[in-house]
Amino acid sequence: MFIFRRLVPIVCVVLFAGVLAAAERTYSGVVDKVDTKTRAVLLKDFKEVKESKDGKEPKGKVATYYLTDKVELTDDKGNKIDVKDAQKLEGKEVTVTLNEAVKNNKIEATIVAIKIGKPDEKRAGKGEEKTAKRDAKREDKKDAAMSKNDPSKANKPSDYTVVSADAAKGEIAVEAGASKLTIKVDANTKFIGPRGGDRGEGVAAMTAEDNKDLLTAGYKIKVVMEKGKVKEIHLPYANSLKDKDK
Protein backbone atom coordinates (compact mmCIF):
# COMPACT_ATOMS: atom_id res chain seq x y z
CA MET A 1 0.00 0.00 0.00
CA PHE A 2 2.85 2.36 0.84
CA ILE A 3 4.53 1.72 -2.51
CA PHE A 4 1.25 2.31 -4.36
CA ARG A 5 0.74 5.70 -2.70
CA ARG A 6 4.26 6.73 -3.62
CA LEU A 7 3.76 5.72 -7.27
CA VAL A 8 0.41 7.44 -7.84
CA PRO A 9 1.83 11.02 -8.03
CA ILE A 10 4.59 9.86 -10.36
CA VAL A 11 2.13 8.16 -12.71
CA CYS A 12 -0.07 11.28 -12.74
CA VAL A 13 2.88 13.50 -13.59
CA VAL A 14 3.83 11.25 -16.50
CA LEU A 15 0.28 11.19 -17.83
CA PHE A 16 -0.24 14.96 -17.64
CA ALA A 17 3.21 15.73 -19.02
CA GLY A 18 2.30 13.91 -22.21
CA VAL A 19 -0.51 16.30 -23.20
CA LEU A 20 -0.74 19.95 -22.17
CA ALA A 21 -3.68 22.34 -22.62
CA ALA A 22 -4.41 23.37 -26.19
CA ALA A 23 -4.62 26.98 -27.33
CA GLU A 24 -5.98 28.65 -30.46
CA ARG A 25 -3.79 31.06 -32.40
CA THR A 26 -4.41 33.15 -35.48
CA TYR A 27 -2.13 33.19 -38.52
CA SER A 28 -2.15 34.82 -41.93
CA GLY A 29 -0.84 33.51 -45.23
CA VAL A 30 -1.55 32.75 -48.87
CA VAL A 31 -2.93 29.38 -50.01
CA ASP A 32 -0.45 28.15 -52.62
CA LYS A 33 -2.08 24.80 -53.39
CA VAL A 34 -4.83 22.46 -52.19
CA ASP A 35 -4.53 18.69 -52.81
CA THR A 36 -8.09 17.39 -52.99
CA LYS A 37 -7.00 13.77 -52.54
CA THR A 38 -4.94 14.16 -49.39
CA ARG A 39 -6.72 17.37 -48.31
CA ALA A 40 -3.34 18.97 -47.79
CA VAL A 41 -3.21 22.78 -47.81
CA LEU A 42 0.14 24.36 -48.72
CA LEU A 43 0.50 27.87 -47.30
CA LYS A 44 3.18 30.43 -48.06
CA ASP A 45 4.13 33.64 -46.24
CA PHE A 46 2.60 31.95 -43.19
CA LYS A 47 3.01 33.97 -39.96
CA GLU A 48 1.30 34.52 -36.66
CA VAL A 49 -0.93 37.55 -36.29
CA LYS A 50 0.17 39.40 -33.15
CA GLU A 51 1.44 42.77 -32.02
CA SER A 52 5.14 43.19 -32.75
CA LYS A 53 7.22 44.50 -29.83
CA ASP A 54 9.94 45.91 -32.09
CA GLY A 55 7.55 47.20 -34.75
CA LYS A 56 8.94 44.82 -37.37
CA GLU A 57 6.75 42.52 -39.46
CA PRO A 58 7.45 38.84 -38.63
CA LYS A 59 8.92 36.78 -41.46
CA GLY A 60 6.59 34.38 -43.21
CA LYS A 61 7.30 30.72 -43.88
CA VAL A 62 5.90 27.78 -45.85
CA ALA A 63 3.59 25.40 -43.99
CA THR A 64 1.37 22.42 -44.80
CA TYR A 65 -1.75 21.42 -42.88
CA TYR A 66 -4.51 18.92 -43.50
CA LEU A 67 -8.22 19.60 -43.68
CA THR A 68 -10.82 17.58 -41.81
CA ASP A 69 -14.60 17.64 -42.03
CA LYS A 70 -14.65 19.74 -38.85
CA VAL A 71 -12.64 22.60 -40.37
CA GLU A 72 -14.75 25.71 -40.97
CA LEU A 73 -14.05 27.32 -44.35
CA THR A 74 -15.58 30.71 -45.18
CA ASP A 75 -15.19 33.31 -47.90
CA ASP A 76 -14.57 37.01 -47.37
CA LYS A 77 -18.31 37.58 -46.90
CA GLY A 78 -18.70 34.91 -44.23
CA ASN A 79 -20.35 32.31 -46.50
CA LYS A 80 -19.38 28.73 -45.78
CA ILE A 81 -17.26 26.76 -48.23
CA ASP A 82 -17.54 22.99 -48.40
CA VAL A 83 -14.30 21.13 -47.73
CA LYS A 84 -14.76 19.43 -51.12
CA ASP A 85 -14.51 22.88 -52.75
CA ALA A 86 -11.36 23.84 -50.86
CA GLN A 87 -9.56 24.53 -54.15
CA LYS A 88 -11.42 27.85 -54.18
CA LEU A 89 -8.89 28.94 -51.58
CA GLU A 90 -5.92 28.66 -53.96
CA GLY A 91 -4.16 31.97 -54.52
CA LYS A 92 -6.21 33.66 -51.80
CA GLU A 93 -4.86 35.52 -48.83
CA VAL A 94 -6.40 33.89 -45.78
CA THR A 95 -6.66 34.03 -42.01
CA VAL A 96 -6.01 30.67 -40.38
CA THR A 97 -6.99 29.61 -36.87
CA LEU A 98 -4.91 26.75 -35.45
CA ASN A 99 -5.43 24.66 -32.36
CA GLU A 100 -1.99 24.04 -30.91
CA ALA A 101 -1.17 21.53 -28.18
CA VAL A 102 2.02 20.07 -26.75
CA LYS A 103 2.11 16.28 -26.98
CA ASN A 104 5.15 14.28 -25.98
CA ASN A 105 7.26 17.45 -25.94
CA LYS A 106 6.20 18.35 -29.49
CA ILE A 107 3.79 21.01 -30.69
CA GLU A 108 0.95 19.54 -32.73
CA ALA A 109 -1.32 21.92 -34.62
CA THR A 110 -4.61 21.28 -36.38
CA ILE A 111 -6.65 23.69 -38.47
CA VAL A 112 -9.83 24.94 -36.84
CA ALA A 113 -10.88 27.48 -39.47
CA ILE A 114 -9.74 29.21 -42.67
CA LYS A 115 -11.27 32.48 -43.76
CA ILE A 116 -10.55 34.25 -47.03
CA GLY A 117 -9.18 37.72 -46.37
CA LYS A 118 -6.69 39.45 -44.15
CA PRO A 119 -7.05 39.51 -40.36
CA ASP A 120 -9.69 42.02 -39.33
CA GLU A 121 -7.30 44.98 -38.95
CA LYS A 122 -10.10 47.53 -39.11
CA ARG A 123 -11.85 45.87 -36.23
CA ALA A 124 -8.62 45.73 -34.26
CA GLY A 125 -8.00 49.40 -35.04
CA LYS A 126 -11.46 50.32 -33.80
CA GLY A 127 -10.79 48.37 -30.64
CA GLU A 128 -7.58 50.31 -30.04
CA GLU A 129 -9.38 53.57 -30.79
CA LYS A 130 -12.14 52.73 -28.31
CA THR A 131 -9.55 51.88 -25.67
CA ALA A 132 -7.78 55.21 -26.23
CA LYS A 133 -11.06 57.12 -25.99
CA ARG A 134 -12.03 55.22 -22.85
CA ASP A 135 -8.67 56.00 -21.23
CA ALA A 136 -9.00 59.66 -22.20
CA LYS A 137 -12.46 59.81 -20.63
CA ARG A 138 -11.11 58.27 -17.45
CA GLU A 139 -8.38 60.90 -17.32
CA ASP A 140 -10.94 63.66 -17.88
CA LYS A 141 -13.07 62.30 -15.06
CA LYS A 142 -10.07 62.26 -12.78
CA ASP A 143 -9.24 65.85 -13.69
CA ALA A 144 -12.84 66.95 -13.25
CA ALA A 145 -13.22 65.36 -9.82
CA MET A 146 -12.96 67.98 -7.11
CA SER A 147 -11.16 66.55 -4.10
CA LYS A 148 -11.00 68.30 -0.76
CA ASN A 149 -7.84 66.41 0.16
CA ASP A 150 -6.11 67.14 -3.15
CA PRO A 151 -7.58 70.10 -5.05
CA SER A 152 -4.91 69.72 -7.77
CA LYS A 153 -7.06 67.04 -9.41
CA ALA A 154 -9.59 69.62 -10.60
CA ASN A 155 -9.63 70.68 -14.25
CA LYS A 156 -10.99 74.13 -13.48
CA PRO A 157 -9.25 76.91 -11.58
CA SER A 158 -8.45 76.06 -7.98
CA ASP A 159 -7.33 78.60 -5.42
CA TYR A 160 -3.96 78.19 -3.75
CA THR A 161 -1.71 80.19 -1.51
CA VAL A 162 1.95 80.22 -2.50
CA VAL A 163 4.32 78.86 0.14
CA SER A 164 7.51 79.00 -1.91
CA ALA A 165 8.79 78.71 -5.48
CA ASP A 166 11.91 77.02 -6.86
CA ALA A 167 12.54 78.03 -10.47
CA ALA A 168 15.59 75.76 -10.73
CA LYS A 169 13.35 72.73 -10.14
CA GLY A 170 10.29 74.20 -11.79
CA GLU A 171 8.26 73.67 -8.61
CA ILE A 172 5.83 75.78 -6.64
CA ALA A 173 4.85 74.73 -3.13
CA VAL A 174 1.27 75.73 -2.37
CA GLU A 175 -1.45 75.14 0.16
CA ALA A 176 -5.23 75.02 -0.06
CA GLY A 177 -6.90 74.87 3.31
CA ALA A 178 -5.33 71.98 5.20
CA SER A 179 -3.82 70.50 2.03
CA LYS A 180 -0.24 71.18 1.08
CA LEU A 181 1.29 70.09 -2.20
CA THR A 182 3.92 70.91 -4.78
CA ILE A 183 2.91 71.59 -8.35
CA LYS A 184 5.30 71.04 -11.24
CA VAL A 185 5.71 73.60 -14.01
CA ASP A 186 6.59 72.16 -17.43
CA ALA A 187 7.33 73.68 -20.84
CA ASN A 188 3.61 73.85 -21.71
CA THR A 189 2.45 75.56 -18.52
CA LYS A 190 0.96 78.95 -19.34
CA PHE A 191 1.18 81.92 -16.97
CA ILE A 192 -1.75 84.32 -17.18
CA GLY A 193 -1.95 87.78 -15.65
CA PRO A 194 -4.79 89.05 -13.42
CA ARG A 195 -6.48 90.67 -16.41
CA GLY A 196 -6.05 87.63 -18.67
CA GLY A 197 -2.86 88.74 -20.38
CA ASP A 198 -0.11 86.39 -21.53
CA ARG A 199 2.73 86.19 -18.97
CA GLY A 200 4.82 83.54 -20.73
CA GLU A 201 5.22 79.77 -20.61
CA GLY A 202 7.31 77.19 -18.78
CA VAL A 203 9.96 77.59 -16.11
CA ALA A 204 11.33 80.74 -17.78
CA ALA A 205 8.09 82.52 -16.92
CA MET A 206 8.69 81.86 -13.22
CA THR A 207 11.77 84.09 -13.28
CA ALA A 208 10.27 86.81 -15.48
CA GLU A 209 10.46 90.26 -13.86
CA ASP A 210 6.68 90.71 -13.78
CA ASN A 211 6.01 87.23 -12.39
CA LYS A 212 8.66 86.21 -9.87
CA ASP A 213 7.50 88.52 -7.09
CA LEU A 214 3.95 87.19 -7.45
CA LEU A 215 5.17 83.65 -6.73
CA THR A 216 6.47 84.47 -3.26
CA ALA A 217 4.91 83.32 0.01
CA GLY A 218 1.41 84.58 0.75
CA TYR A 219 0.22 85.40 -2.77
CA LYS A 220 -2.99 83.78 -4.01
CA ILE A 221 -2.85 82.04 -7.39
CA LYS A 222 -5.28 79.99 -9.42
CA VAL A 223 -4.16 76.74 -11.05
CA VAL A 224 -5.80 74.78 -13.85
CA MET A 225 -4.86 71.09 -14.09
CA GLU A 226 -5.33 68.86 -17.12
CA LYS A 227 -4.49 65.15 -17.25
CA GLY A 228 -2.44 65.43 -14.10
CA LYS A 229 -0.32 68.34 -15.37
CA VAL A 230 -0.35 72.07 -14.68
CA LYS A 231 -2.02 73.67 -17.69
CA GLU A 232 -2.34 77.27 -16.48
CA ILE A 233 -1.26 79.42 -13.54
CA HIS A 234 -3.31 82.59 -13.02
CA LEU A 235 -1.29 85.25 -11.23
CA PRO A 236 -2.72 87.81 -8.78
CA TYR A 237 -2.48 91.59 -8.74
CA ALA A 238 0.84 92.85 -7.43
CA ASN A 239 -0.81 94.80 -4.61
CA SER A 240 -3.18 92.00 -3.55
CA LEU A 241 -0.94 90.86 -0.71
CA LYS A 242 -0.45 94.41 0.58
CA ASP A 243 -4.19 95.05 0.50
CA LYS A 244 -4.71 91.89 2.55
CA ASP A 245 -2.22 93.01 5.18
CA LYS A 246 -3.93 96.38 5.68
Arrangement of strands in the largest sheet: 3-2-1-6-7-4-5
Name of the CATH superfamily of the largest domain: Copper binding periplasmic protein CusF
Poorly predicted runs of 5 or more residues:
1-20, 122-128, 145-149
Structural domain count: 2
**Do you know the CATH architecture of the largest domain?**
Beta Barrel
Q: What portion of residues belong to β-strands?
A: 35-45%
Give a short account of the largest sheet: 7 strands, mixed
How many strand elements?
14
Mean pLDDT, to the nearest integer, reads 77
Residues in helix, %: 10-25%
Q: First CA to last CA: what distance?
A: 97 Å
CATH class of the largest domain equals Mainly Beta
Please tell me about this protein's structure.
- With 246 residues, the protein is α+β, with helices and mostly antiparallel strands.
- It folds into two domains: 17-122, Beta Barrel (OB fold (Dihydrolipoamide Acetyltransferase, E2P)); 151-245, SH3 type barrels (Roll), CATH 2.30.30.
- The chain is built from three helices and 14 strands.
- Strands 3-2-1-6-7-4-5 form a seven-stranded mixed β-sheet, with no helix packed on it. A seven-stranded mixed β-sheet has the order 10-9-8-13-14-11-12, with no helix packed on it.
- A hairpin with a 5-residue loop joins strand 11 and strand 12.
- The longest helix is centred in the middle third of the chain and has 24 residues, at 121-144.
- The model is unreliable at 1-20, 122-128 and 145-149 (pLDDT under 50).
